[in-house]
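Possible regression after last week's pipeline update?

I re-ran a chain I had predicted before the update to compare outputs. Posting the input and the new output here so someone can diff against the archived version. Not blocking, just want to make sure nothing changed silently.
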Amino acid sequence: MARRITGRSHGDPRTADTRAKVKDDYRPSRDEILRYIAENPDRAGKRDIAKAFALRGDDRIWLKDILRDLQDEGVLTKERKRLARVGALPHVAVLDIFGRDGDGILLAHPAESVSTGEPPVVSIRVSRSGNGPAPGIGDRVLAKTFPTDDPSGPAYTGRVMKIFEKRTDAVLGVFRVLKDGTFRIEPVERRQPELIVDKEFQNGAENGDLVEVEPARASRYGLPRAKVLNVLGSLTSEKAVSMIAIHAHDIPHIFPADVIAESEAVRPATLDHREDWRDLPLITIDPADAKDHDDAVFATPDPDEKNPGGVIATVAIADVAAYVRYGTALDREALKRGNSVYFPDRVVPMLPERISNDLCSLREGQDRPALAVRMTFSADGHKIRHSFHRVMMKSAAKLAYPQAQAAIDGVPDDKTGPILDTVLKPLWDAYAILKRGRAGRQPLELDLPERKIMLKPDGTVDRVIVPERLDAHKLIEEFMIQANVAAAETLEAKKQALVYRVHDAPSLAKQESLREFLQTLGLSLARGAQMRPSQFNGILERVRGADNEALVNEVVLRSQSQAEYSPGNIGHFGLNLRRYAHFTSPIRRYADLIVHRGLIAALGLGPGGLTQDEAARLKDVAILISGTERRAMAAERDTVDRLIAAYLAERIDDRFDARISGVTKSGLFVQLPQYGADGFIPVSTLGGDYYIYDETARSLFGERTGNGYQLADHVEVRLVEVAPMAGAMRFEMLTDPKPLPGSTRSFHKAKGRARASQSRPGSRGRRR
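New output (post-update):
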């Protein structure tokens, strides 16, 4: 007898009356199993299904066989231990509305492909009360989806939760008034053409203003025209360059009034639900110009005789969850931003200043709420145990990295002197032990120095420096890594939903590409899907100090996957960790705030914990914050490019030492190590040979001579053209091509490919 599945997400899916009538040998039908999976996507593992239908013993073996049959038949698919109908939508999905049916009901497709077949159609429910979102054709929405029973209609219905902001066809540019009185738009994107603005479409813009314009349809002759929509500010003001990136990447930078009002109304946290740790001399160690301090550290030898030479390391993190509660205006805005964005001339914070720089900042000598982890390590760096605590703390000192390092190196000052023996030396002793654990773990060790742009008061570039990498930096980094691991381990042990920080191993395709490249240098990389960071470290160690050290580091970096956030765990390849979650920066990363809420809920640490509704949305939240992270990185990179291009605009025809940072068929990208900025050298300007692109060797070489240029080569270049607002620079190569080491085989292979390409109809080569 078929039985009705209620679709509830907890417990047995049958009603109490039905359960009373079910015999001990009850087994659900295939349709009942499929319906349960469709209606309970978050509880669709084998154990969940067995529990829902009260299956035990041999019935569980029977269920396992049925589920395997359904997978073999292509009816079900398995993703991270959860089963789903092939082509099924998640319970919360991003949809694109594409039209209406005969009755005027909106229809949508999933924004991302969910199967190899036709995408399912979703009919969109619109609130009759008019209180909910009112989407239209062309909108992208976040919606809850529900499978339907109607075989002749849409497979799903959807209830809209949010309408995403529309991107218009508007573009950014700088308004310029030419000598003849005409108006032009100087592009801020490298591929954007220059535009003409007629006087009637000036819209109050003045020379040097950053404007948003709407291009008109291009004519057959001359430059396209445009009209000014909005004036965003003057480029003569400070912070104008980062404003371009903020608008170009749609980064929210102005807090709504309700968010500001909510932050101002927040009252300081009290000792309720907290341990009093104010006498523990935790200290903060940060960059000298840091405005907020979200982590503090302390260490002491372990007094336990069973752990000789061991240490207890403590990390305390600002308790943002005490002030930013799920569903509030503060929380919604923080999720929308996803993270703080750091430009050379400004910070676009995730949280208002009242929260980030005041109530949550672990200021010296002031009571502050924190979530702390106390970790015990053996003398060899192995973590024995850890525990989390919700505390009230008081920072004993605010130190800068160089200041703390100087004290350890024998030059203490008035602040570090009194705490040198009691606080700083025990921290460095603990770091020495944690380093042993790191050495045993063997994370990926790439040598990639970071550059920092120093600005003048007017916002222009003063100089570019490579800050020294101190043990103080490494100490804080390793303490934070261990705290992040402890957070992930605790939440997983408590079976609490969380967002992991995951980093996949390099794909098989990237591994093979790297292997082919290394062969051109006489280096080998073992085959196999189970790569280890230590294998890459072995390659890097073999080239340490060699001429091709920078080249190999660069290519190994490019072979790596991109880290992201996910509610499913695949480990962190680069750090060589099985479990890892971001816990240590909740002021500037929403992912960390989720982890804090999870710990509070899992450990019963008081109010502000993760709710069931929030836990159900973690997959979508992880996608969103992974996207905002990539957006921030792109915006930061674009701003650096524009600042450096503007800085060098007065140095046309100057010579620079450079390093080849990219090789393509069309030319070479070069980076100026002194400035960390990139420019381009077109292949057509390289000189009297026909240059062939060798993808395996990452090189361009001459067909006639075999000499050429390779990724990471050090060369001399001349600056010939700069487009400051686009952040683009063009260079001329001054260094002669050279024989490429280990490239004989690659030379003949690439030459053969090039000739084969030229013999095909329509193919052309570029010859100088």
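Follow-up from reviewer: compared with the archived run. The domain at 92-163 is CATH 2.40.50 (OB fold (Dihydrolipoamide Acetyltransferase, E2P)). Marking as no regression found.
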